[in-house]
Amino acid sequence: MRYHLLLLIFSLQCVVLQASYADGAYYTGQFPPQTNAFSATQLTIQNTARNIWVYRPSNAPHPPLLIFFTGTGGTLEYSTLDELGKNALQEFADREGVVIVAPLPRSIDQGDWDHGAGAPYWETALGSDPQSPINRNPATNQDLLLVQAIMDEAVKSYQIDPNRIYLNGFSSGAFFSYFAAAVLHERIAAFAETGGGLVLSRTTAGDPICQINPVSAPPGSHLSCQAAGWTTQSCVTPDAIARPIAPTSVNWVPPGFLAANDDDDSVPFAHTCHLANRLGNESEVQVRIIHQGGGHIVPSGYWEDAWNFMKTKRLETALFKAADKIFEYAETQFAPVFNPAPQTSQTGFGFYYRYYPNSNSYLGYQNQSIWYFLPNTGIREAGPLSQYLPLAKAVR
Questions:
Q1: In angstroms, rounded to a whole number, what is the distance separating the alpha carbons of residues 41 and 103?
Q2: CA 13 to chain CA centroid, nearest Å
């Protein structure tokens, strides 16, 4: 009975931390059953028809899904997708057996911290003031709802592998790729971005204007942030809010591939380095500063390099790591129940779990929920994994 009470407290103490995000996207429309080329389609979110490019290869059962976010101003007539080359992307998709979905940004009447009023861009904030709140709520952020709708529709129409959903983006789409991966981390296996990062100044260009002169290196060189001339104080304004979202404000961030051109005069590469630095040891990150020239462009070789990083990542791996943090927390806070500790995690019976022989008890994870088994109570669901991660992180 005492053990049951301890677990009940464990279940109740973080109810207030439950995420308020929508469980799923509400949308109308569907993807075409088969595509021989990139096809334009629409999904309607909150009474707004959103334009989307879709390509589904014919040779892949349960394929992975790659969602690509174009830069500011992207339209059906022209976007970053055209700069990359639709034919080349189709060949890539056929070779890798991956579904590519490229939604386009919508025009928003008010600007935000990085865009003027009326520009098509990806939403992260609730207003144009540099101090305006970050809009991380999928119930009110239409772009986050769109991402969820794309994932749900791809599962329904193409039977994509839900363990292999990846995000990628350039410029405004780069900021949103990271933002969506951080907020919707329970569904994203990995993300990539170029020409984005984490802005620690009041504007993307810097306040004052930020510029790091490119170092001397052979064209096409891949540099570390430090080798490219970045420091932790590059392009930093002390009173700025971290945009699009601070990594510390979410439970975890999926693995990320971060790239930038060291000659980017619109979005300085310092922002990419700040994001890599802030993610630190919490996430698996690969960062690449490319000495290329050309300004604000997708660097040469970025697409293939980003995919080679992402394609090996699986969502279940990240979720298992998150579950391990909660198991470790429970072992510390409820030592009389879960002992001896630590125990090695294993899989079986449909669970990822740890067994504690002294008390004949189990801690388990299944379907994004934490479970426990005690001899006098049987198996019980403690609650969503997302409830417990803030507590687990707080004591680490």
A1: 9
A2: 28
Peptide bond into 138 cis (omega under 30): no
Q: What's the 3-state SS for 113-174? A: CCECCCCEECCCECCCCCCCCECCCCCCCHHHHHHHHHHHHHHHHHCCCCCCEEEEEECHHH
293-334 pLDDT, tens digit per residue, is: 888 999 989 999 999 999 999 999 889 988 999 999 999 999
Arch. (CATH architecture) of 31-313: 3-Layer(aba) Sandwich (3.40)
Q: For the CA atoms of 210, 211, 212, 218, what is the dihedral angle to 10 degrees?
A: 140
Q: Report the amino acid identity of residue 59.
A: N
Interval 211-249: pLDDT, tens: 787 788 888 899 999 999 999 999 998 888 899 999 988
Q: What is the number of helices (H) and of strands (E) in the chain?
A: 9, 17
**In Å, how far from its chain's centre is CA 44?**
23
Residue 38 token pair: 């990139």
- How far is it, in rounded angstroms, from Cα 316 to Cα 3? 29
Label residue 217 exposed, middle or buried (CB < 10 Å: 0-12, 13-18, 19+): middle
Contact between 149 and 25 under an 8 Å Cβ cutoff? The reply is yes
The residue extents of the domains of the chain are 2-16+318-394, 31-313
